[in-house]
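Today's session is about reading a structure prediction critically. Students often jump straight to the picture, but the first step is always the sequence itself: look for stretches that repeat, for charged clusters, for runs of hydrophobic residues. Only then move on to the predicted structure, which in these notes is written as discrete structure tokens rather than atom positions. Here is the chain we will use throughout the hour.
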Amino acid sequence: MKIKEIIREAVAEFALGKEFAVEHPADEKMGDYSTNIAMVLAKELGRNPRELAIDLVNKLSDNKNLSKMVEKDNIQVAGPGFINLWIKDEVLISQLNEALKTGDKLGNSDFMKGKKVMVEYSSPNIAKRFSVGHLRSTIIGQAIFNLYKHSGGEVTNDNHLGDWGTQFGMIIAAIEEDANFNWDSADINKLEEIYVDFNKKIEENPELRTKAKDAFLRLEKGDESARNIWQKSVDISMKEFDDIYKKLNVEFEHVYGESAFESLMPGVIAEAKEKNISSVGEEGALIVRFEDENGKEEMPPAMLVKSDGSTTYFTRDLATIKMRLTMPELKCDEYIYEVGGEQRLHLKQVFATARKLWPEETKRVEFVHVAHGLLSLPEGKMSTRKGNTIKLEDLLGWAEKKSFNITSDKAGFEMKDDYWLTNKNQNLWPHDVVNMSETMSIGAVKYNELKRSPIMDYVFVKEEAISMDGNSAPYLQYVYVRTRGVLNKLGENLDKVIAGKKEFENDDERILARWLLLRFVEGEVVESAARNFAPQTVCAYLFETAQKFNGFYERNKVVGVENQSLRLALTALTGEVIKKGLKILGIETVEKM
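Below is the predicted structure for this chain, in token form.
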């Protein structure tokens, strides 16, 4: 049982069924854990909370399981009635020994044990280049997927591609009108260019919008010409996306475009009609209304079928849920949608309608929308139609070039007439610098997205996105390399190096051990981030870990001292925690720098 669980169990004996907190005090000097149980109970019992806390401390001191973890003198009352507890040094040292043997399970939580989860993310649109705007859902979604993979449950994911809808009507209409279009030379750049140009033409000639709608309607009805253009566009786009995902180290177990649910849509529409969930709107469209028992509108109506008979995002998202509820490999207890915040109303409508259509099937199912904020450029909102975007491959190229310049300079390499020259670091070779540069640059771009709350709107600044300093992935990678450098010089077996040790020598050791063990090793960091869909909290923890270790390392000699074994163990665990934390964020470490 984890230390926090032992404390909670001991306190629960006196809680009278009331909810109470067991948390880390903001000030580390005030204890390893603190509980507000006395203040929770004081009002109900008519007691002074501080006096009640004193009584509870005496009772907690007699708990056999708790006494193994905490000395009686280290259960104390603070402030108006908080009860603070300090864990014994020998318990922490024992935990440190065990943590070094944990391997891949280090820091894992188990709160999702017995549950199955699907995370939907990325979801780029076919025939459009990957821009930095797509990066948010891809990177945040992958981090949330990874967090749940380390939370004890069965986890899968889905890349819900935008490969249907009026946008394809535009591409089909544009290609059919262009007598000079050549598929042999076509790539995703060309497809996006066609889309942008067609939108500009629509501004001058609104009648073209009708052509696009007609083209999409033909696509839905199986027109051979429309289907052929659609399939070739999908094939070209997927090649581009696969290259990007490989570079970002993002993998999907399921890739279902909106078109995959085409056959289910007629059934969903029929069910909505049969169950009186849909009705005909003023212009002949089939809509779903959201009203309470008194007929008061709770949300605006959603369009199930357009007046021309074509489907909508709403139809297709309902069909998606239908498939997920019926296919064994897709059926889950929880579905997490990492989708932009502008889709809040849409997804609320989709989830509410799904529960109306399939009340039994969704009774125990949870739908969650993790909404990421708007990413804009200094000159304004990004728009593919207006050609106002930053291509993701351009961003990654800038980042890799900057990283390459930094790492090659530090390694003492320079290029002359396509030959490498070296003048200092013989431990690094040209291929090391190239691989390191790519790892660090991709890490920098990912971390820049993940360190902020997903819900935040922010203005994208290239220089910040590829930062190698401060609160950044390269900084954490550097600290990891620093820990490995200390250990590699000695090559000491760390499994038994601190056997028999019962006390820390100073507060630097004690504080670092508590920070690593009671937060990450016990699974608290992963569980909190997963429950709150908040990968930014992992970033904050890792940055604080790196700073604490650097402070410890600068003030304490690690090698050649009496306490060398314990300090090497703390160094090793710091490195493993940073490596595992970055892995959960989808960021690799490097072994040299």
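Discussion point for the tutorial: Residues 224-248 form the longest helix (25 residues).
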